[in-house]
Structure prediction request, 337 residues.
Amino acid sequence: MKNQNRRGFIQKLAIGGLLITPFQKLVATPVSVELQREPAKKKIRFGICADIHQDIMHDGELRLQVFIDDMQKQDVDFIIQLGDFCRPYDRNLPFLKIWEQFQGPRYHVIGNHDNDGGFTHDQVITFWKAPLKYYSFDKNGYHFVVLNGNEHNPSPDRPVGYARYIGKEQQEWLEKDLHQTSLTTIVFCHQGLDNDMGGIENATLVRLILERANQDAGFKKVRLVFSGHHHLDYQNEINDIFYIQINSMSYQWLGDSYVKIRYSTEIDQKYPYIKYTVPYKDPIYTIAEIDSNGAFSIKGASTSFVGPSPTDLGMPKHEMGYEVVPYISPRRIKFNK
Prediction:
């Protein structure tokens, strides 16, 4: 894309020093929870994007560049992508170079589509220069855990389709990791731990690990779990832990029943999977913040669909459980002392 087009694209997205378009609005929806005991905290801000799907979208590089440019401007403490980022093809090196423009720490979550084409998890993380398949790190008085939800269920009765399981070795690692930290903890996983419509198969077991960590600690240690994968926008609270779904940066997959060519014939020929999606006109992503008083928030981001909406195509509103929408809702949760 020519520079002037890219500048115009970014200008539409840079409203109020944050993200997106004139559609963006911020609202506060407080949800109060009580803490028995919690270490002192500093303010922390981090950028989150999910499911850009570089190997499907024709403008993946542009979408990522908008995110990186804004994160540099916002001076966040780190950035993280929640999976379905890019496969380890040489042709994706320019895309990866855009990600590496961010000067601060950069973290990756493995998504199910990152292994398409027969790639292993090790090949993916080597290409991305990610630390490990699952890992943890500390920042500003908080503990962050990155899970790999793409392990195989050893049972012969496992559901067909992509692997979406957290195996025994990773479960044991997670228990030990949570036991060893005294810091309030935030978890990232590609697939939802709160969504049984294509989420982690053994999500209940993994949630119990998080909940036991809270019981053993004597305070609500694990507070937030972020996921991508579902390309939806919702929040759930289960046993005092908040599960927040971050919408895709690019689109929702609609499948064979709602095929529609959204761009030019040339783009469709080169990127044949786009017509099975409903793309978002602009990339959507967010900044999460926890202030020194323990108030957590994520900023809202809104755009529109490219071409007819799912409703226009006759798709029932709740066919995917939650409504398909081209936005990330603003959220605010007060962690009271």
